[in-house]
Amino acid sequence: MDWLTILTTTVHAAIGWETVVYGLAAIGVNIHFGYTGLLNFGQSAFMAVAGYGMAVTVVFLNLPFWIGILVGLAAAAVLALLMGIPTLKLRADYLAIVTIAAAEIIRLIFRSVYFKDIFGGSDGRRGFNGDFYAMNPYPAGHYGIGPFGFDERTMWFLTVGWAVVLLSCVVVYLLMKSPWGRVLKAIREDEDAVRALGKNVFSYKLQSLTLGGIIGCFGGFLYGLYNGAVQPDVFGTEMTFFAYTIVILGGAARVFGPVVGAMIFWVLFVFVGNTLAELVANGYIPFMTTIQVGPIRYALVGLGFILLLVLRPQGIFGDKREIAIDAR
Amino acid sequence: MRDDTMTDSLKAKAQAAFKDLARDPGVPKPDPILVVDNVVRRFGGLTAVDVNHVEIQRGSITALIGPNGAGKTTFFNQLTGFDTADSGTWRFNERAMNGVPAHKVARYGMVRTFQLTKALSRLTVLENMRLGAQKQRGESFWRALVPGFWRGQEEEITERAEELLVRFKLDAKRDDFAGSLSGGQRKLLEMARALMVQPELVMLDEPMAGVNPALTQSLLGHVKDLREQGMTVLFVEHDMDMVRDISDWVIVMAQGAVIAEGPPSTIMSDERVIDAYLGAHHDAPLSEGELEAQLHEAEAELEAEIEEETQK
Q1: Is A193 within 8 Å of chain B by CB?
Q2: Interchain contact, A179 vs B196, CB within 8 Å
Q3: Which H or E run contains B56?
Q4: Cα–Cα distance between A172 and A253 in angstroms, integer?
Q5: Which residues pair with B95 in a beta bridge?
Q6: CB atoms within 10 A of CB A180
Q7: By three-state DSSP, how is residue A271 classified?
Q8: C-alpha to C-alpha distance for B170 and A91, rounded to whole angstroms
Q9: DSSP assignment letter at B98
Q10: Which residues share a beta bridge with B40?
Q11: Confidence band for A309, pLDDT divided at 50, 70 and 90
């Protein structure tokens, strides 16, 4: 048993790139679902248009990195308007259906043969992160304590990534303490009551959808920058559902809920996966093969979440009083 | 008791305005705050609302009554922009209001409550109240990010909210979730929250529904209070005792139309109203022969039944 590898990979997962990327996706979902009560099941679409916006601008149009970021941001904002304007006047479940469909449409456009010249088909796009790593101020080397640590590229990525995560948390904190956030939370509870008090519910929902989408789109940028590539199938529904799991795990409508949720999610995921792999490799679980570790890991992590939600339905940061209240 | 005389005079003033009015549906009022013309709402083949003309007197408490399914709540929804009327116009303070979305209706000073109370459960009582305030600087996205822009205003709003909470005896609950309040307390909260908007016309949809009798008196007092503060009240209600107690004028709806108007003391003896509630001819006298025939019929039926039972 290689306990040291299990330990280091687990610790790395707590602050690693997955936590950053999925944490940002979850912060966005938390604004939609946790604060406003919008069931946006298309969060992966925001990340996809951001990642592709950046990649295509740099690789296909040969424009600088920063223009790529701007294009990605604009794409996410346009997507929020496109998805929101026709659906936000309808009830919550319609939004869920439309967003999940929109996300699939966008994924299928990116992987289509027709647009292969632009989006690269199912292989996606690569080779657009050179400018980002050229900005790296860390000299080559290993950063960390003993076996825990990262190389200079990962350090640069994590510095930027966590700065974006913290900035997003500060923005969410400020907004949700303000009267603006109060309107959002009130819409979650009962939008007709909010209308009767003279607030333009539609406009607030659109603002919420856009803000959460933009924060999620930073997750899309960072995914592309770390992996050096964007592929269409990465931005599937699984990504959205992971983000929802993270939000509920951390506690919906809590500022740091998604961040801590993402840490726990990936720690559990990596720890269970690696431990299982080691146990199987060393013959402690004779009835399993190493190929089976992947799916079993999903099942075990799922079981863990079920237990957590049964024992602590409000999530890590949630307030038990809120769960006790019937939502309507 | 200067307050009492003040109250009396306002009440008297409100009632004096109705003194010489005809009892006809759509009778013009001396100083209407709301004038409704030809509002129609159909759901498929069903005409839920078809109101020709109705006026609401400023500074009064007007009750809107009618049997179940008369279209009272639908009519409310039309007026407040929660549902779109198929046709018709209505003017609030001389401003045309048809097609105006619900949030703008509230901003213009026409605020409603709901039959099924809409307390915002997972917000505290105080947050519920603060939400009602209008023109909040901190409700715009960019300014919300800088607390300096809105903190001063927030303090003013909180002060006003706390005064209202004291008046409605909810001040002890200010930091509790609204979802933890009792049904009656939620009604109180909803009314207090509507007052945060500083409306001119308060529209209450069944304010007494689901309120325990102990709270009824205090709720009634609050509704009367609204008139004393210069607001106009229009409310839908089933409880006739309440209607008699607090309203200055009663409008009766049946099958979507306004069928009668009048002061609360006499409206329930109006023939049109009795017909609407109990059906026409409900008290038409039967001739003696008819009565006997009916008795025989019933007797025969009973006998047949008994026979059937014994044969089994």
Answers
A1: yes
A2: no
A3: strand B46-57
A4: 10
A5: B92
A6: 24
A7: helix
A8: 32
A9: T
A10: B50, B87
A11: confident
Enter the tokens of residue B36. Answer: 């409704």
Q: What is the dihedral of CA A273, A276, A278, A282, to 10 degrees?
A: -160
Between A160 and B279, the more confident residue is A160
Length in residues, chain A: 328
Q: Please state, in angstroms and rounded to a whole number, the distance separating the CA atoms of residues A256 and A169.
A: 7
With CB atoms and an 8 Å threshold, state whether A325 touches B121.
yes
Q: How far apart are CA A252 and CA A10, in angstroms?
A: 25
Query: What pLDDT score does B276 carry?
Result: 82
B148: which 2 tokens?
Answer: 């300096």
Torsion of CA A138, A140, A141, A142, to 10 degrees: 50
Instruction: Report the distance separating Cα A168 and Cα A29, nearest Å.
Output: 12
Residue to substitute from B114, B118, B158, B197, interface A, most A β-carbons within 10 A: B118
3-class DSSP state of B261: strand
Cα angle vertex A142, ends A139, A144, to 5°? 120
| Contact indicator for B101, B81 with CB cutoff of 8 Å | yes
Task: With CB atoms and an 8 Å threshold, state whether A196 touches B114.
Answer: yes
- Whether the CB of A159 is below 8 Å from some CB of chain B: the reply is no
β-strands B87-92, B46-57 pairing? unpaired
Give the Cα separation of A262 and A22 in Å (integer). 6
Q: For residue A175, give how far its alpha carbon lies from the nearest alpha carbon of chain B (Å).
A: 6
Question: Can you tell me the distance from the alpha carbon of B273 to that of B206, in angstroms, rounded to the nearest whole number?
Answer: 19
Q: Which residues of A155-170 are buried (b: 16+ CB within 10 A; e: fewer)?
A: bbbbebbeebbeebbe
What is the spatial distance between Cα A42 and Cα A109, in angstroms, rounded to a whole number? Answer: 15
The domains of chain B, with CATH numbers, are 2-119+181-287 (3.40.50.300)
B87 touches A: beta carbon within 8 Å: no
Tell me which residues of chain B have a pLDDT lower than 50: 1-3
Among A13, A29, A15, residue whose Cα is nearest residue A246: A29
d(CA A96, CA A83): 11
Q: Please tell me the distance in Å from B121's CA to the nearest CA on chain A.
A: 6
Report which of B169, B139, B170, B143 is spatially closest to residue B157, judged by C-alpha positions: B139
What is the model's pLDDT at position B283?
Answer: 59
Q: Which amino acid is at A27?
A: I
- Pick among A171, A197, A215 to test the B interface (most B CBs inside 10 A): A197
| Chain centroid, CA A11 distance in Å | 20
pLDDT for the residue numbered B2: 45
What value does the mean pLDDT take over residues A124-142?
A: 90
| Helix/strand/coil percent split, chain A, to 5 | 75, 5, 20
CA dihedral (A163, A168, A169, A175) in degrees, to 10, reads 150
